[in-house]
Amino acid sequence: TQSTQQPIALVTGASAGFGRAISERFLRDGYRVIAAARRMAPLQELQRRHGDALLPIQLDVRDAQAVAAVKQSLPEAWRAIDVLVNNAGLALGTEKAQEADFQNWQTMIDTNITGLTLMTHAFLPGMVARKRGLVINIGSVAGKYPYPGGNVYGATKAFVAQFSRNLRADLAGTGVRVTDVQPGLVGETEFSLVRYKGDQERTAAMYAGAHPLRPEDIAETVAWVASLPPHVNVNAIEVMPTSQSFTALTVTRD
Ligand code: NDP
Ligand code: 8X3
Fold first, then answer.
1. Which InterPro entries match (predicted)?
2. Is the N end or the C end of the chain the one with fewer CB atoms within 10 Å?
């Protein structure tokens, strides 16, 4: 049964991976969840399992008109969003910059930067007016630590990190909180399958023997951030599997 006392979370990219795990975790914690993604079938499947506490929304976050339409058409009872989770995102390819397909770069910029800023721009004013709200942006360790082939993907996540900090600067005194969650290697999502354009073997090799994080670990982190009292803001949180660490800087020689 619905109650207006229940907090509301809007999660983008809820059809798979972290977004689905975050949505399910919020539902378990008593939230109502607006679950957005391009593919409706997995969202409808979620709704079949969770009922009226989940509102599935078909949305391509890259599309400014579609984002505006979602904002306009949300049912009255679903408008006071407490937590916006900007999770929709992707990496495409690991080619070096000098060999990369520009269309892949464009898609990452459109989704990870334009999509995330469109959603934030649409839903932030309501949070400020209500003097309450939390924006959780899903960044990445790739936004901090460079690696070969990470070029534009990592740069989009560096944007997410600085945008998150700058949001905090603008939101000072409003009561609205912002967190950048920066995961490392996480398996059991569609991330690598998307990045490697459906190459199952390469995807399996990425995680073999690595004991990567699981989507539920990220959902746990997001749930913890959202559970903190209103006077606590986690600016950023970086989470890696124990198996993941750092390499030294490299030097090429003649
Ligand atoms: P998945 O590929 O499993 O999920 C990505 C989700 O984003 C899907 O639900 C997809 O749904 C959605 N999505 C993609 N493009 C759009 C779009 N244009 N509009 C709306 N939704 C979109 O990946 P993960 O769950 O692993 O990744 C989620 C986030 O976490 C991403 O931002 C990613 O960069 C980040 N991340 C992932 C890590 C990992 O190792 N897995 C580590 C660090 C960060 P649909 O196709 O239905 O639209
Ligand atoms: C995903 C983590 O290291 O594959 O953001 O770029 S990584």
1. NAD(P)-bd_dom_sf (IPR036291), Sc_DH/Rdtase_CS (IPR020904), SDR_fam (IPR002347)
2. C
Question: How large is the C-alpha radius of gyration of the chain?
Answer: 18
Structural domain spans, the chain: 8-239
pTM, whole model, 2 decimals? 0.97
Please give the distance, rounded to the nearest whole angstrom, from the Cα atom of residue 141 to the centre of ligand 2: 6
pLDDT digits (tens, 9 = 90+) for 128-158: 999 999 999 999 999 999 999 999 999 999 9
Ligand nearest to the CA of 91: 1
pLDDT digits (tens, 9 = 90+) for 83-108: 999 999 999 999 999 999 999 999 99
Q: Which atom of ligand 2 is nearest to the CA of 185?
A: 2
The C-alpha atoms of residue 39 and residue 145 are separated, in whole angstroms, by 32
Distance, in Å, from the CA atom of 219 to the CA atom of 186, rounded to the nearest integer, reads 12
Query: Distance from the CA of 141 to the center of ligand 1, in angstroms?
Result: 15
Q: What percent of the chain has pLDDT over 70?
A: 98
Q: Does the CB atom of residue 62 touch ligand 1 within 6 A? A: yes
What's the rounded mean pLDDT across residues 238-250? 96
- How far apart are alpha carbons 39 and 32 in whole angstroms? 20
Q: Is the CB of 60 under 6 A from ligand 1?
A: yes
**What ipTM was assigned to the predicted interfaces of this complex?**
0.98
Q: Quick check: CB of 13 below 6 Å from ligand 1?
A: yes
The gap from C-alpha 236 to its chain's centroid, in whole angstroms, comes to 13
Write out the two tokens for 70: 């979602």
CATH placement of domain 8-239: 3.40.50.720
- Whose Cα sits closest to atom 4 in ligand 2? 185
Nearest to 119 by CA among 159, 66, 56, 171: 66
